[in-house]
Amino acid sequence: MRATFGVPHLTTHVLDATVGAPAAGVDLVLGTVDGEVLATATTDADGRAALGPDVLPRGDLVLRFETGAYHRSRGVPTFHPFVVVAFTVSGTEHLHVPLLLSPFAHSTYRGS
Fold this sequence. Notes:
Layout: E1 10-16, E2 21-22, E3 27-32, E4 37-42, E5 48-51, E6 59-65, H1 67-73, E7 83-89, E8 95-96, E9 99-102, E10 105-108
């Protein structure tokens, strides 16, 4: 069962498509579009992380995934040194930003 939060709370799940497994050890930075850092985290053994203040500010935020460092740690060349996902906080719902990752492509969507 998914946790329920009364205020915006951000989670992510990073999967490495090249090995068909969670991407553990991906560093994350949550920030404003102006560059203010709100929180940092690292994905766990299941490729998951929760981050951010208890109350996310309304408006546009960015979640930066340090994918280049992740691939380098595995000895894999990569095209993307990092992936930035921009999104808008407009209410109090739980926000989930998953990332499907490979060395030369990525995809994301609004999760639940």
